[in-house]
Specification:
Shape: globular
Family: Belongs to the glycosyl hydrolase 17 family.
CATH class of the domain at 161-353: Alpha Beta
CATH superfamily of the domain at 161-353: Glycosidases
Structural class: alpha/beta
Signal peptide: 1-27
Protein name: X8 domain-containing protein
Subcellular location: Cell membrane
CATH topology of the domain at 161-353: TIM Barrel
Largest sheet: 9 strands, parallel
CATH architecture of the domain at 161-353: Alpha-Beta Barrel
GO cellular component, one term: side of membrane
Helix content: 25-40%
Radius of gyration: 28 Å
Strand content: 5-15%
Distance between the termini: 73 Å
Strand order of the largest sheet: 5-4-3-2-1-15-14-9-6
Number of strands: 23
Length: 702
C-alpha cells in the first residue's frame, strides 16, 4: 500500500456500481494481497494450505517470486503477478524485453499456475510519476507479448491506480483526476483497457477517509453496516457505503477523460456529467489496520466481511440479468449488488519490514504464525448488506394516461438512475405481467423509496403519481399443509368456499417475498461443486437426505447433491443473495427447479381422531419433545388454526415422521397415528405461485 500525503480526497460521504474483474476471476470473488516485506513469514507451501483452509481463491503478489508462483501450481488459485515499477521503463522502450519478461515470468508457469492478471507498475501516478508517459507503452508491449505467446485471452494487463489520483471525489458526480496526471495518458490508459477488456484497477482505503474525518464519516458508513445513507446533491443517488461512493467517483472521473465517441451513460439530466459504465473496475487493494483502533473495538472485521458480502451480492443472478437488460448497464442503487465485482483485501499477513508508520505493519488478516488477527469468512462475509429505510407510507405508481412511449422513457431513466430493475427483466420474478404500466410502476416505486419518498422522486415528467394507500390486493387464506393453488382464479374459488384467515398479498407492485431457489452451476466443474457442497454441509445445510440411503441420494451426481445442499443453505439464510454464491458455484433461479424435496414425500402420517383428545394430546406432547418442530402449531403460529387436537397432532406426527425417514415405526404413537399414501388434501401438490407469493392451503374437510 502506498502512503499518501493527504487524504482529503477521501472525504466522500457513501449506490452499488457495476464493478468488474479479470475474466479469469469468478463473479463475486474476493482475494488477498500476499505481500512479503517481512523477515518472519511462513514458507509458501504452508501459506498455500492456509489459503485453501480459508477458501481464498484469488491472490495478488507484487513481483513474480518463483517460490510463490510454483507453490500455487495445480491449486486453481488465481494469481495476479506484477511487473514492478523499476522495470516499467525497460518494458516501455523494448518490445523484445517485454516478450522475454513474459516468457520467463508468466508463460514458464502457465497453465499449471493459474495466472490470470499482470499488474504493470503499482500506483505509478503517485509513487513514480517520472514513469507516467511510459506506463501505457509498457502495458501495450506486455500485452503484445501475451498475444505472441497465445495468452492474451487468458491473462489481462492493467495497472493499479491509487485513489488519491482524484482531485475531486465528493460528490461523485463531480469527480475528476488530478491536473498533474496528463489527461492524454489517462485517456490512453482508458482506451487500452476498453480495447483489451481489462479492468481499471483501483487501490482504495475507505478506513483512511474515516480516520481523516470521523466527524462527517460514520463508522457504520465505511464498514458496510446499516445506515441512513448520503445523497449526491446533483444526481440524488443515495450511497449506503463509502466504498460504493468511491467506486462511483472513479467511474465519473473516467467519464471525463473518455475518448470522443466512447459509450457513456448520462448520470444526471440536470447537470449532464457522464459516468463510464463500459469500463471494468477491479479493487486491487482495500484494507484496514486494527492498529488505529487500539483500546477500542476494532471495526476491521466488519469492514472485511462487509466487503465480501457486498462483492458476493454483486454476482447474484439478478445482477447478471441487468447486464443483458433492455434498460442497459445502469448505475445501480446502493442496497447491494453491482453487475460484477472483485476485490483484493490488503493484506494476507502483518509485514514487519513495511516502511511508514506502525499501522502499515499491521494490515494483515493473519499473524506470521498463521493465526488469524480477526475472523473473516471468504465464502459469505457478514451476510446481506442493506440500508435502514423507514417503512413505506406512500408509493409511486405509473400514470397510464401518459401512454406507453412516455412510460418507457421514464422507466429507462429510473433504471439508469438508481432503481434496481433486475426483478422486471425477462424470466425474473416480477417480469409478469409484461406491461409498460406494471414495469414502470415497479421501477418508479423503487426509485421513489430509495430517495426517501421525496415528492420530486415520483414526477418522471408527469409519468408518476404518489398514492397513500398501498397498491395491493388482499387474499383470504387459511393455514397450510404444503399444498399450493395453481392460479389466482382457482385460489379465489377456493377462498370463497373454505378459508377464514386474511393475509396481504401484493398484486399491483410485485413484492420482495418472491420464491427463489439456489441451484448448482455445473459449469464450475465437479471439483469446485464438491468443495462448495462440503462447505455448505459444514456450515448449516442439512445434508442428511443426500447421504447414501437418504431419500434424496438419487440421482447420485455432484450437481444434484450440490443443488440440494446449496438450496437448503440458501433457504435457511432467508434467501440472501450472498448465500447462493459459493465462489461462483451457485446460481439463483426464480422458476422452481427439479430439486428433491424431502418435505414433499410419497407418504404422510396423520392423527386418528377416533382415539380421542387425551391420547392425541399425549402423543402430540411426545412428538414435540422428541424432534418434531411444533413452532407452527403454537398460539400465534402460522398453523395454529384450526385449533383442534387432531389438526395439531397431524402436523406434529407428520413432521416427526418425515424427519425420521418415513419409517413405519415413526408413525405409531401408540396407535394414535396412521400412514396415508395420498396427500391429506383435496388439492394435489403443484409448483406454482401467484405474483411471486406461494399460497399454501389447509386441508378442506369433506
Amino acid at each position: 500500500m502506498a502512503l499518501h500525503a493527504s487524504f482529503l480526497v477521501f472525504l466522500l460521504l457513501g449506490v452499488t456500481l457495476p464493478m468488474y474483474f479479470f475474466p479469469g476471476a469468478e463473479a463475486g470473488e474476493v482475494g488477498v494481497c500476499w505481500g512479503t516485506v517481512a523477515d518472519n513469514l511462513p514458507d509458501p507451501g504452508s501459506v498455500v494450505q492456509l489459503l485453501k483452509r480459508n477458501s481464498i481463491t484469488m491472490v495478488r503478489i507484487y513481483d513474480t517470486n518463483s517460490s510463490v508462483v510454483n507453490a500455487l501450481a495445480n491449486t486453481d488459485i488465481k494469481l495476479m503477478v506484477a511487473l514492478p515499477n523499476e522495470l516499467v521503463a525497460n518494458a516501455a522502450s523494448s518490445s523484445s524485453y517485454a516478450l522475454q519478461w513474459a516468457r520467463d515470468n508468466v508463460a514458464k508457469y502457465y497453465p499449471s499456475t493459474h495466472i490470470n492478471g499482470i499488474a504493470v507498475g503499482n500506483e505509478v501516478f503517485d509513487s513514480a510519476s517520472n514513469l507516467n508517459q511510459k506506463l501505457v507503452p509498457a502495458m501495450r508491449n506486455v500485452y503484445a507479448a501475451l498475444q505472441t505467446l497465445g495468452l492474451d485471452g487468458a491473462i489481462k494487463v492493467s495497472t493499479p491506480v491509487a485513489y488519491s489520483a482524484l482531485k475531486v471525489s465528493w460528490p461523485p458526480s463531480q469527480a475528476a483526476f488530478r491536473d498533474d496526471i496528463p489527461q492524454s495518458v489517462m485517456a490512453d490508459l482508458v482506451s487500452f483497457l476498453r480495447h483489451t477488456g481489462a479492468p481499471f484497477s483501483i487501490n482504495v482505503y475507505p478506513y483512511r477517509a474515516y480516520l481523516d474525518d470521523p466527524q462527517h464519516i460514520s463508522l457504520e458508513y465505511w464498514t458496510f453496516q446499516p445506515n441512513d445513507g448520503v445523497a449526491d446533491p446533483n444526481t440524488g443517488r443515495r450511497y449506503y457505503s463509502l466504498y460504493d461512493a468511491q467506486l462511483d467517483a472513479i467511474r465519473y472521473a473516467i467519464g471525463t477523460v473518455s475518448p470522443a465517441g466512447a459509450s457513456r451513460l448520462r448520470a444526471s439530466l440536470a447537470q449532464g456529467t457522464g459516468a463510464a459504465v463500459d469500463v471494468q473496475l477491479s479493487c486491487t487493494e482495500c484494507g484496514c489496520s486494527c492498529y488505529n483502533f487500539r483500546g477500542k473495538h476494532c471495526p476491521c472485521p466488519k469492514f472485511a466481511n462487509g466487503l465480501i458480502s457486498y462483492t458476493l451480492a454483486a454476482s447474484s443472478s439478478s445482477a447478471a440479468a441487468r447486464r443483458s437488460s433492455k434498460y442497459g448497464a445502469s448505475l445501480l442503487g446502493s442496497t447491494g449488488g453491482g453487475l460484477a465485482a472483485s476485490a483484493y483485501i490488503f493484506s494476507l499477513f502483518n509485514e514487519d519490514n513495511k516502511p511508514g508508520d506502525e499501522s502499515e505493519r499491521e494490515f494483515g488478516l493473519f499473524y506470521p504464525n498463521m493465526q488469524p488477527v480477526y475472523d473473516v469468512d471468504f465464502v459469505h462475509g457478514s451476510g446481506p448488506v442493506s440500508p435502514t429505510p423507514a417503512p413505506a407510507s406512500s408509493w409511486c405508481v405509473a400514470n397510464t394516461a401518459v401512454g406507453d412511449a412516455r412510460l418507457q422513457a421514464a422507466l429507462d431513466w429510473a433504471c439508469d438512475h438508481g432503481a434496481d430493475c433486475s426483478a422486471i427483466q425477462p424470466g425474473a420474478r416480477c417480469f409478469s405481467p409484461d406491461t409498460k404500466a406494471a414495469h414502470a410502476t415497479y421501477a418508479f416505486n423503487d426509485y421513489y423509496q430509495r430517495n426517501s419518498q421525496a415528492s420530486s422522486a415520483c414526477d418522471f415528467n408527469g409519468a408518476g403519481s404518489i398514492v397513500y394507500q398501498q397498491p395491493s390486493e388482499f387474499l383470504v387464506i387459511r393455514c397450510i399443509n404444503r399444498t399450493y393453488a395453481s392460479s389466482l382464479n382457482k385460489l379465489l374459488t377456493i377462498a370463497n368456499r373454505s378459508m377464514t384467515h386474511w393475509i396481504p398479498m401484493r398484486t399491483d407492485i410485485c413484492g420482495p417475498s418472491q420464491a427463489s431457489w439456489c441451484v448448482a452451476n455445473t459449469a464450475a466443474g465437479d471439483a469446485r461443486l464438491q468443495a462448495a457442497l462440503d462447505w455448505a454441509c459444514g456450515h448449516g445445510a442439512d445434508c442428511t437426505a443426500i447421504q447414501p440411503g437418504g431419500r434424496c441420494f438419487s440421482p447420485d451426481t455432484k450437481a444434484a447433491h450440490a443443488t440440494y445442499a446449496f438450496n437448503n443453505y440458501y433457504q435457511r439464510n432467508s434467501q440472501a443473495s450472498s448465500a447462493c454464491d459459493f465462489n461462483g458455484a451457485g446460481s439463483i433461479v426464480y422458476q422452481q427447479p427439479n430439486i428433491c424435496d424431502p418435505n414433499q414425500p410419497a407418504s404422510w402420517c396423520v392423527a386418528k381422531a377416533e382415539v380421542g383428545d387425551a391420547r392425541l394430546q399425549a402423543a402430540l406432547d411426545w412428538a414435540c419433545g422428541h424432534g418434531a418442530d411444533c413452532s407452527a402449531v403454537q398460539r400465534g403460529g402460522r398453523c395454529f388454526d384450526p385449533d383442534t387436537k387432531v389438526s395439531h397432532a397431524s402436523y406434529a406426527f407428520n413432521d416427526y415422521y418425515q424427519r425420521n425417514g418415513r419409517a413405519a415405526s415413526a408413525c405409531d404413537f401408540s396407535g394414535a397415528g396412521s400412514i396415508v399414501y395420498q396427500a391429506p388434501s383435496e388439492f394435489k401438490l403443484i409448483s406454482h405461485d401467484v405474483n411471486g407469493v406461494y399460497i399454501q392451503l389447509q386441508q378442506i374437510d369433506k
